[in-house]
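Appendix B, Record 12. Input sequence as logged:
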Amino acid sequence: ATCGHGCKYGECMGPNKCKCFPGFTGKTCNQDLNECGLKPRPCEHRCMNIHGSYKCYCLNGYMLMPDGTCANSRTCAMVNCQYGCEEVKGQVQCLCPSGGLQLGPNGRTCIDIDECSTGKAVCSYNRRCVNTFGSFYCKCQLGYELKYTSGRYSCIDVNECVTNTHRCNLHAECLNTEGSFHCKCKQGYRGSGFDCA
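Logged structural output:
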């Protein structure tokens, strides 16, 4: 079984046939499956889609049960949580639907944790961290693009001189570098390479 385009979040089962891991979809299993849009819905009240998975949470006054249903709770209603609550050893605690969110100072609303600035997010070489509400993802650094080569996805240098995305002067030559490019004025011209006279 060989899959020419690879199976990003799955395994190759036959000629160009991918079997996706749970939570992913697409021909090459490179897309996140939005479980919140499935029928029947996986959560009784509210659903938050996250990369490769999902989280359930309840309306105020309800408590999240292990099976994703929401149980009416007088204690929850009194606490007035943004995303529902749970009872731990007789104590009511507000919930946040993702590990990338934390309870705010009021103990009721959830605020985003910026994993990129706290250093919690680790992105591999040539990738930069992009923060999202409740999570983060890794994106190729500027000057690189995601390509499938030799059996895996990697961030490969964009040759701006070939793709014609450089801003070199008409009288300058473009020289590709890792993640960027240089402009050099041609013989008989002087300047920065962006301006040649």
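The longest helix spans residues 74-79.
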